[in-house]
Amino acid sequence: MGDTTIRPEIQSLIDQVKFDDKGLVPCICQDAATGEVLMFAFMNRESLGITLERGLACYYSRSRGKLWLKGESSGHTQKIKDIRLDCDADCLLIKVEQQGAACHTGYRSCFYRHRDAADTWAPDGEPLFSQNEMDAKYGKK
Amino acid sequence: MGDTTIRPEIQSLIDQVKFDDKGLVPCICQDAATGEVLMFAFMNRESLGITLERGLACYYSRSRGKLWLKGESSGHTQKIKDIRLDCDADCLLIKVEQQGAACHTGYRSCFYRHRDAADTWAPDGEPLFSQNEMDAKYGKK
């Protein structure tokens, strides 16, 4: 994955993004068809380059300290339909065609909990996949 | 603003959110009616409490180092329609009724630029307000 060739015009796009002191930029991921916000993660220069060149979302996993081609394990890839930059050039928004579930819990979106009328963070809706199904996808079995 | 009373049930909601080592949590703001992602900012415990109690988006401005009741200067307030928490409890999503423009540039959304066919970050659409109109709203004249 790290051997992806980054063309000069793509390098120029990357150079206009402001990465933080850890070399990261936040990225919001939204379903291109429905507008549902699916997840939130970070990209570094390399993962943004791969995303722009391949047309598939690639993040940087802070917990694992490495590139994270979304769906590489689970098959739940994100095909890029649009990529946007905010006014301060320090946040990205990608609109994607999501395969399966964006969330490792099996819910389509990571934002499956909301403040309900009883003032609790309550799940809203049902997951697409059970935890057992998700564990199998990630080879945890 | 800092004198807003936080009820125990709201304090419990706040206590379940994971703030980072700077005491901040990222927050994605989305138009409740259209699904358009409007902006991205941070909240601290106090601004989240105010948001939950008042039903108006209140962020923490990292550049100004203080609470930021959105629209306080410009009138472009954000009324909360839904507030959601992600699977890791370290990112918020608010769905709002936006007055005017969310972006200080006069565009409705901060994410007004996108990668175009020529591989540049090109504005997509037109601003709601001119820069002069925005300056007037912020008292810059």
What pair of chains forms the biggest interface?
A-B, 39 and 39 residues
What is the first-to-last residue Cα distance of chain A?
A: 26 Å
Query: Could you tell me the strand content of chain A as a percent range?
Result: 25-35%
User: Could you estimate the helical fraction of the residues of chain A in percent?
Assistant: 10-25%
Low-confidence stretches of chain A: none
Quickly count the helices of chain A: 3
Overall spatial form of chain A: globular
What does this structure look like?
The structure is a homodimer of 141-residue chains. By secondary structure, chain A is an alpha+beta fold. In chain A, 18% of the residues lie in helices and 30% in strands. The first copy, chain A, is built from 3 helices and 8 strands. In chain A, β3 (58-61) and β4 (66-69) form a beta hairpin. The longest helix of chain A has 10 residues, at 45-54. Chain A is globular and about 50 Å long. The relative contact order of chain A is 0.17. The model of chain A has no long low-confidence stretch (mean pLDDT 95). The A-B interface holds A 9-10, 12-13, 16, 26, 28, 30, 34-37, 39-40, 52, 82-89, 91, 93, 103-105, 107, 110-115, 119-121, 124 and B 9-10, 12-13, 16, 26, 28, 30, 34-37, 39-40, 52, 82-89, 91, 93, 103-105, 107, 110-115, 119-121, 124. β7 of chain A pairs antiparallel with β5 (78-85) of chain B, so a sheet runs across the interface.
